[in-house]
Amino acid sequence: DGEPGAGSERGDVGRPQRGQQQVVLVRRAVRDHGRVLARQAARGGRVRLKGGGGQGEREFQAEVEIISRVHHRHLVSLVGYCISEDHRLLVYDFVANDTMHHNLHGRGRPVMDWPTRVKIAAGSARGLAYLHEDCHPRIIHRDIKSSNILLDDNFEAQVADFGLARLAENDVTHVSTRVMGTFGYLAPEYASTGKLTEKSDVFSFGVVLLELITGRKPVDSSRPLGDESLVEWSRPLLNRAIDEQEFEELVDPRLDGNYDDVEMFRVIEAAAACIRHSAARRPKMGQVVRILDSLTLNDVDLTNGVQPGKSQMFNAANTADIRQFQRMAFGSQDFSSSEYTQSKASLSGRRDL
């Protein structure tokens, strides 16, 4: 066994229930002919010990049920679990490089370079798209955030922590549920009504993209008044970046300009589309995957020989998705924080992207 590591706390929008308990540890173990395992981790592979009752029990059951259904290289792999009196134990394959949150925001960590950020964005998008589009019934994660994206030896992303996930049958438009998740990542329509859809996850993923672009935390009380929320701070800067290709105020200054302008523009467009207030106008994760995957194809000239800022920025394979993103990101300046929903009349006849 290795030394236990610190865990990340999930925020509950409601008040915590009396008696609710969760302890998160990391212990590294070598078993099964050299296979490296972890008994629940908050960083890397995971070991979670939960109280046997209340919310902890529900999360444990949900995680075992859902993670047992899914198999994807960008989702954590459950090896086994154990129930002993009041304790609940989950065992995953060990993931060596902690979480995206730790590597991006951790004190004293080296600056995460742009190619690594793109890799993390693309991998986590693939994992989330698998849950939404390739699982039957569909799976809504409900707690997408940077501390739930684990990183392996090569900084490939694995989406983790399915304790709040919900199943959605194909004929169900939304799931009504108690509002839970993490402040700074919650979609406005979910926070205000409790109606959960895949687009709630898409909004949360957009916040993750903003973290990778800006290097800022979703909520930072040390920022000036009015700038604490990453989403609200970034909205006017996203407009400027898209309209004028001016990235300097938005992009993480620690990158010191070491990024490809075309790649940055695409990720900014994707983030802007994902965090739209109108859930219906957010992209599906499959669309996001196609855009981000194109950025990781190192042997493909994505600029088609044209300098950034010229008219032929995108290769033909992704033109349709890029145009949809442009419509979503450029199509409206309705970034007011009061716009949570649209009337049925305004939505009628509009395709739900």
TrEMBL record:
Catalytic function, reaction form: L-threonyl-[protein] + ATP = O-phospho-L-threonyl-[protein] + ADP + H(+); L-seryl-[protein] + ATP = O-phospho-L-seryl-[protein] + ADP + H(+)
PROSITE patterns the UniProt entry points to: PROTEIN_KINASE_DOM (PS50011), PROTEIN_KINASE_ST (PS00108)
A single GO molecular function term of this UniProt record: ATP binding
Protein's UniProt keywords contain Glycoprotein: no
Pfam family, one: PK_Tyr_Ser-Thr
Main localization, broad class: membrane
Residue ranges annotated for the Protein kinase domain, each copy included: 1-297
Membrane topology: Single-pass membrane protein
Cellular component, GO, one term: plasma membrane
Top EC class of this enzyme: transferase
Compartment list: Cell membrane
Chain segments carrying region Disordered: 1-21
Entries under Gene3D superfamilies matching the protein: Phosphorylase Kinase, domain 1, Transferase(Phosphotransferase) domain 1
Assigned keywords, A-Z: ATP-binding, Cell membrane, Kinase, Membrane, Nucleotide-binding, Serine/threonine-protein kinase, Transferase, Transmembrane, Transmembrane helix
EC number from the UniProt entry: 2.7.11.1
Domain of life of the native organism: Eukaryota
Protein name: non-specific serine/threonine protein kinase
